[in-house]
Amino acid sequence: MGFSLTGTHVIYFIASVIIASAVSGALIAVIQDVTSSFDEKGDDIQDKMDFDFKIINDPDNIPSDVSNYVFYMKNIGRKKISTSTTTFQVFVDGELLLTSNYSFTDESIQVGDVTTMNISKTDISAGSHELRVVGPQAIEDEFSFEI
Length: 147
What we know:
Number of domains: 2
Strand content: 25-35%
CATH architecture of the largest domain: Sandwich
Shape: rod-shaped
Helix content: 25-40%
CATH topology of the largest domain: Immunoglobulin-like
Number of strands: 10
Structural class: alpha+beta
Largest sheet: 4 strands, antiparallel
Radius of gyration: 29 Å
CATH class of the largest domain: Mainly Beta
Distance between the termini: 100 Å
């Protein structure tokens, strides 16, 4: 005696349920990976919004003292920023400055406050220049100026 039509349908039904379960399991894993990636990206964007600063000098009139040019940096983010030569890297015309050639007058900048960054005159000659300051969370600001 052969298999009845009902028996064949039951086998096909069970096979369909197994295949559907495998596909849905794979889709759930992919969706969880995508959701996790979105969460991480959102956290990165939030960190970048929390830490932000801007160089606010007049590009045609850079103040100086005996040995340094003076640049003003304002905290425009949502958190206090620690200012040190380990927190910030400074580039002039694409060249990374030695940490001994720049300094900050304050140890940190509160939200909305301004600090002074001093850069040695030996690193900046007369003419047009590009200053790039990279801070926490790789937040950066570029500033073109003339000496």
